[in-house]
Amino acid sequence: MRAVDIITKKRDGGVLSEEELDFFVQGFTDGSIPDYQAAAFTMAVLIRGMNADETTNLTMAMINTGDQLDLSDVVDVAVDKHSTGGVGDKTTLVIAPLVAACGVPVGKMSGRGLSFTGGTLDKMESFPGYRVDLSIAQFKQQLQQIGIVLAGQTAELAPADGKFYALRDVTGTVPSIPLIASSIMSKKLAAGTTAIVLDVKVGVGAFMQDLAQAEELSRMMLSIAKRSGRKAVALISDMNQPLGNAVGHVLEVREAIDTLAGRGPRDFVDHCIEVAGHMLLLAEKTKTLADGMQAAQAAINSGAALQKFRELVIAQGGDASYIDHPEKFPAAAVVLNVAAASAGWIESIHAREVGLTAVGLGAGREKKGDPIDFTVGIIIKHKVGDRIAQGDELFSVHAANQQSAEMACERLVAAHHIVAQKVEPLPLFYRTLTQE
Ligand code: URA
């Protein structure tokens, strides 16, 4: 078998066999197939697509590049959530401790920033010393001991995804339903997850631009879960405006800490409570979604969720004093506040533009492995549907220097659309899809 024949076959619209997919994924992972061929392959998949069998086979091939975790000796139900990626999406930092604080262990393998979206691992690394590269033995031990793990793909678990993910980020090959579905599901299945809540984002700030695409991606992932004997539910959620207020690593970590401490922005709190409620329901911890949401809210109110987050940071080597003293996090050199030039209602805050502006400030990568600036980012002060007066603060930009701050401000003013007539707020969720 030759890599070039597989690329050509997909380029011409062919259907790849299980053997071909195994050969390609294995070869890319062990280094015998170079990045440039893998880049051509992912572009061919992006353009031509894959059917359900191919996508499942691609997922299995990716899982087979590493070990599979069996968590049954440490937990009864391994529940997890995964978001398809959005702007200001720091939900894992809040939801994982929330659910763990309710007595359901969460062992999670997360990713790095992809394109204009931020990544959980990058955010957690804002804590000095925080380690994301745990061995399987460490992962299991920590899950058993404190009921929460937030780690990255290791060389042992789904290593193919780590390589494809970094390559896709810088080759324009992210927004492909089979590539996203196999990336997410290979990670989840390899990590031994038995029940998964999929948070599928839709809108201008998501990889899925409309509801039809989001439903197709949801169904694909639900079907892979079902074929693998796992329980799953997909929630289609809005990503037309950023989630919460903060975009950028340190800023988002600080917002997550505020949220766990009961001071989070309303939309972000409600989103986290609902996803956590679904996780508790899927794990059969509660009988109804309403009970699950109530339990999650109670974990914030009692301080149990913040305490669980503290345990997580300590267990993975991070400096937890930053949780109680967030002012210790490094800050950007320049902060500019921008006020509204006119009164009215906020009609839209273009989430993708906000995400790309954050990348432009240094919060994202241009090339594989590029360093990122943890301190830069944006605080959006309003939501779609808010009424504002002239001079009200619209957003603040945290930048490394004056020039990049000014450029970001210009871009963000254009990303806010203010109109004279009343505008309805955006919903948080559009649809819930189950395996039935
Ligand atoms: N999240 C993932 O884990 N993979 C993708 O491809 C997109 C979002």
Q: What percent of residues adopt helix (DSSP H or I)?
A: 40-55%
Number of helices: 17
**In one word, what is the shape?**
globular
Mean pLDDT: 94
Nearest-angstrom radius of gyration?
Answer: 21 Å
User: Structural class of the helices, strands and pairings?
Assistant: alpha/beta
The low-confidence runs, each spanning 5 or more residues with pLDDT under 50, are none
Q: What is the beta-strand fraction? A: 15-25%
Strand order of the largest sheet: 1-4-5-13
Number of strands: 13
Bound molecules: uracil
- N-C termini distance: 39 Å
From N to C, what is the helix and strand string?
Answer: HHHHEHEHHEHHEHEEHHHHHEEHEEEHEE
> How would you sum up the major sheet?
4 strands, mixed
Describe the structure.
This protein has 436 residues and is an alpha/beta fold. The chain has 17 helices and 13 strands. The strands form 4 sheets. It has a 4-stranded mixed beta sheet, with helices on both faces. It has a 4-stranded antiparallel beta sheet with strand order 6-9-11-7, sandwiched between helices. Helix 10 links the parallel strand 4 and strand 5 (231-238). It is globular and about 65 Å long. The structure holds uracil. Uracil binds at residues 84-85, 111, 114, 165, 179-180, 183-184.
Describe what is shown at a glance.
With 436 residues, the protein is an alpha/beta fold. Helix content is 46%, strand content 16%. The chain has 17 helices and 13 strands.
